[in-house]
Each structure stands twice: as C-alpha cells, then as structure tokens.
TrEMBL record:
The keyword Iron-sulfur does not apply. Its cofactor is Mg(2+); K(+). Homotetramer. It comes from Aliterella atlantica CENA595. K(+) binds at N68, D129, S165. Residues 233-534 form the YjeF C-terminal domain. This is Bifunctional NAD(P)H-hydrate repair enzyme. PROSITE patterns: YJEF_C_2, YJEF_C_3, YJEF_N.
C-alpha cells in the first residue's frame, strides 16, 4: 500500500497531531518552512478547484491569530503572485509571531486588507477560512462569533483550512458557533472531529492535504496499533471479493443462518436474505415463521427456507431446524430483523450457542431485555451488535452518550460487553473489545430508510460466515497500516468493510437515482456493482 493510502486510514486527536508535529520540528524542520509548504499546497489545490468549478472572482482570506491564519496568509500571497484577485481580513488585535510576519508582508506587497468582515464579504466571491485550526481552545463569543455568523449568512462558497473554524478538533462540536464550509481541507492527517456525525453539517466536501509527515513519526506517536482508523477503499480491496480456492464446495464457503421476519415484518426477512445473497456466502438458510415460507421461497429460490412454528400474531415461537441440523452446523448466525419481541425464546436459545452471532433490530431489543452484559459475558463465541443510537441506549445505558460522544460510547460498549459493536449513524463507528474503533467516512442520508439496516445485517452475516468457514478470521483486532498483512481478516475489519460496502452501494444508487431513489430493495441491486468496480481498481 502506498504512503498516501496508508495515511488516509489514520485518524488523530489534536494532541496526537501536536506530538507528531513536535517530532518533526525537533528533528530540524523549521516551523516556518512547514507552514510555507502547507500554504503552497493549499494554494495549488485552490487553483485546481477554481479551474474545475465555477468558483471565480476575488478570494477573501479570513486570517486568525494563530498558525491557521499563517497558512491562510501564505495562500493569500501565493494567489496574489499568480495573478488572482485577493483580499484579507484579520479581525484580531494580536497574532502569533510567524502570522504577524506574513500579515506584514502581505500588506507590503499591496494585498488589500479590510478591517471588517462585512467589507470583505461585500468585495469577495469566495472565502478561504483560516480563522482557527486545531488550536481553538475556548468557546467563540463576542465579535468573532458575530463575524462567523455573518460569514455563514452570506451565500459565498467557503474553503476551510484544516477544520471549519469553531469546530472542536476531537469532538467535532461547534464551540459557540462555527464556519459552515463547502470544502474542508484537512492538513496532514485526518482529525477525529471531522469524522463525528455532529460536525458533518459544517464540513462540506472533506479531503486530506498530505504534506509528507514521515510514517515513522506517526507510528512513534500512535504506536503499532492506532486506536482509531478510517475505513477506506484499501481495506475493502484487501477484503473483497473474498478469495476462493479453485477446489471447494458450498459448505466450505460458509453456511449462514438468518433468523428473521414475522407476519408483521415479512419484508425485513427478504431484505436480509438479499443482503446475505450479495455476500457470495456458500449456503444460506433462512428461518422464518412457517406462514412466510412460500413468500421467501419465491424471492430467494437459492436459499434454504426453514419454516418455524409461530405465535398467534405470526412471530417465530420456537426454532425448528431441519432434521439432523443444529445451531453448531452454521458458521455464523444473524438474528433480529423483523422478529418482534415475541421471538424472545428463540433469541435466548441462539444466544446460548457457540457460534459467531450478529444481532440486529429486535435481536438487540430482546438482548437488552434479557440483560446485555450478563448475557454476553456468558458467551464464548464472538458477537457483533449493530445498534442505532436508540437501540444502543437500551443495550448500554451506562456506556456514555451515543449521540454526543459516539466514539467514546461505542468503545466503552465493546469493552464492557466483549462484543464488536457497530453504532450506526452518518459516520458509522465499529469498536472491537480491545479498543480499536473504525469509522466509515463516507455515506449518504439516502440510506436513512426502512429496511436499509436489514440489508446490512444479511451482508455482514454472509461475509462473517465465509471468513469463519475459511478459518482466516482473527479474534484480535489488528491495525495493518504499519505491518504487512498476514492474510487473516479481523472480525472488526469485516464488520467495517460490510458497513463501507453498504454505504458505497447507497452512494452509487443515489448518484443514479437521486436521494429519493435508494429504497432498501433497490439498494440490494447496487451491492455487487460496488465490488465489480473494486476488482477493476484492485487489478490495476
Ligand atoms: N499540524 C501541522 O503540522 C501544521 C499546522 N499548521 C497550522 O497551524 C494550525 C494550528 O495553529 P495554532 O497556532 O496552534 O492554532 P490556531 O491557528 O488554531 O489558533 C490558535 C490561536 O487562537 C487563539 N484562540 C484560541 N481559541 C480562541 C478563541 N476562542 N477566541 C479567540 N482566540 C482564540 C489561541 O490563543 C491561539 O493564538 C493548524 O490547524 C494548521 O492550520 C501549520 O501551519 C502547518 C503545519
Ligand atoms: K480554519
């Protein structure tokens, strides 16, 4: 994997970034030289963006008191010398030394400086936001906060340097107020705050500007196993499509059991089955209430449909597997979509078995009712839970806030339950009990529709069953950035790749059919085209 692809997987906190930077400076790189380098890279990217888009006219450069402002001033100077119209506004009374020098030079070469943000807004066509970066420490109040609100009310396109000014580098929280950017160009390494759901409304289109941080410095600060990673296409390419030996048979390619559906939620069973089918799993068995069997057979003729006794309301009342089959015959079992709470005895039974389990929807609600921690700590096999924030709160009332502190909460939940926990959201986060958290960095709100999660459960179940059957699934989470892969796929990496695949299918469907066109059934048709494209990329 080349350098750029490796660093795209790394996520850092403000402190870690400062420590990495500190090593670079201690090794002899002058601070001013790094700012110069970064500023020029940003200027180059701006010129590319101006040419590629309809953004035109005078660039208004917002300059803050620290080195984020310094970066912005290097950009102003570079654009000025390249013949672009540029103006600056630096509405502060004190600046850091390097920033002061750049400000003085910018004025000396004739770059127009406006005293107020109103004036800048009146004379410019696009804005470059260099007010604050990772040094923002306090809530923004007074004239700075007012200026940011005025900037947001203007309809000018905004490019934020490093972070939209006002966002907390780690939590992504707007500290009082924050710039609502159209583009955010994160410097050097991805900052955690940019991967938080709550930050998304401020970030716009995010990309990383690489400025050659040595991998050795990243490794020295983060250790061999960084605790947060971005799920990138590279992880998917390393995992998908799951390799098959030339001589094999269906049971060697994984046998997945889905337990899902009820009279009330019949469609959920079909969607889960279609998600599983797209995973390529060798054998797919689907346990549903007896009365749903004809429906499922018609939709999934390739699956073995197991009709189970049902309650008066049409939920599975007990699991009735075919003769000579028991739960241990499956490589993985995914349970939950559309079950209703009446299926409690079945979920209870499945939780006691010694197979890898994926629990979703009513599977999670039933687990919460049974007692999450006491139930899961009795399990010897692996468990993956896939809650959204509401289910998470019911499962883990003491693990922190799955809305306000998603990363902290999911990490705590995995640690106390010994399960892999996938917290759904705009930036789905996947935590392994050993502390690793993966974040899926791209998705679309088009996926916020009934049945979308059922597709994910089936897809993930199919991938896990195949890896389990091939015996190349590792229990411990390992982060592969700094090591050669040993060809073992970790359970949290598979769950992460499933989330990535699911959201990429959503993005693809949205681009063909608009944000309204990504119903869960349609989504299932977009799963395999995502992998076909990966294969093309991977073979290049
Ligand atoms: N990461 C790198 O290797 C590089 C980073 N660069 C850029 O530098 C900034 C970080 O610079 P720093 O000076 O540390 O912080 P800021 O520019 O974000 O601003 C801090 C500045 O603002 C004052 N301040 C903090 N909070 C408030 C507040 N609420 N109200 C008013 N003033 C506030 C604080 O006292 C400081 O003076 C990074 O993001 C990059 O853009 C380098 O240029 C290249 C290498
Ligand atoms: K900024």
């Amino acid at each position: 994997m080349d350098r750029q692809k490796k660093i795209e997987q790394v996520v850092v906190s403000a402190q870690q970034m400062r420590d990495i930077e500190g090593r670079i400076f201690a090794a002899g790189m002058p601070v001013a030289a790094l700012m110069e380098k970064v500023g020029r890279l940003i200027a180059h990217r701006i010129v590319e963006t101006l040419h590629a888009t309809s953004l035109r006219g005078c660039a208004g450069i917002l300059v803050g008191p620290g080195h984020n402002g310094g970066d912005a001033l290097v950009v102003a100077r570079e654009l000025h010398f390249q013949g672009y119209q540029v103006a600056i506004c630096a509405p502060f009374s004190k600046f850091k030394e390097l920033t002061t020098s750049h400000l003085q030079y910018a004025e000396s070469i004739g770059i127009r400086r406006y005293d107020s943000v109103e004036e800048l807004l009146a004379h410019c066509d696009i804005l470059i936001d260099g007010l604050f970066g990772l040094g923002l420490e306090r809530h923004l109040t007074g004239s700075v906060a007012t200026a940011i609100d005025q900037i947001n009310q203007s309809s000018l396109p905004i490019i934020s340097i490093d972070l939209p000014s006002g966002l907390h580098t780690d939590t992504g929280e707007a500290l009082g107020t924050a710039i609502r950017a159209n583009y955010t160009w994160c410097l050097g390494l991805w900052k955690l705050g940019l991967l938080q759901d709550r930050a998304l409304e401020y970030i716009g289109n995010a990309e990383l500007i690489d400025f050659d941080i040595p991998l050795a410095d990243i490794q020295a600060v983060l250790g061999d196993a960084p605790s947060i990673g971005r799920v990138t296409k590279e992880l998917a390419i390393a995992t998908l499509p799951l390799r098959r030996p030339p001589v094999t048979h269906k049971y060697k390619q994984g046998h997945l059991l889905l337990i899902c559906g009820s009279f009330r939620y019949a469609g959920g069973a079909i969607l889960t089955g279609l998600g599983a089918r797209a995973s390529g799993v060798g054998m797919l068995s689907i346990a549903v209430p007896e009365s749903l069997k004809p429906l499922l057979v018609a939709q999934l003729p390739d699956a073995l449909i197991v009709g189970c006794p049902e309650t008066a309301a049409g939920a599975i009342s007990s699991l009735q597997l075919p003769e000579n089959t028991d739960l241990n015959d499956f490589d993985a079992i995914a349970v939950g979509p559309g079950l209703t709470i009446e299926a409690t005895p079945t979920v209870e039974q499945v939780l006691k078995c010694d197979r890898t389990l994926i629990l979703d929807a009513d599977g999670l609600n039933i687990l919460a009712k049974l007692g999450t921690i006491p139930t899961l700590t009795q399990r010897s096999a692996k468990t993956i839970l896939t809650p959204h924030a509401g289910e998470f709160k019911r499962l883990f009332p003491d693990a922190g806030d799955p809305v306000g502190d998603r990363i902290g909460a999911v990490k705590a939940a995995a640690s106390i339950s010994n399960a892999v926990v996938l917290l759904k959201g705009a930036r789905t986060a996947i935590a392994h009990p050993t502390g690793m958290v993966w974040i899926n960095p791209e998705s679309t709100p088009a996926l916020a529709r009934g049945g979308s999660g059922d597709v994910l459960t089936g897809l993930m179940g199919g991938l896990i069953a195949q890896a389990q059957a091939a015996e190349n699934i590792a229990i411990d989470s390992t982060f592969e950035i700094f090591k050669q892969s040993d060809r073992q796929i970790t359970i949290d990496a598979i769950a992460s790749v499933a989330a990535w695949w699911h959201s990429q299918a959503g993005i693809k469907a949205e681009s063909d059919r608009s944000v309204m066109g990504v119903d869960a059934f349609t989504l299932t048709h977009y799963l395999l085209p995502v992998v076909s494209e990966l294969r093309l990329v991977g073979s290049n």
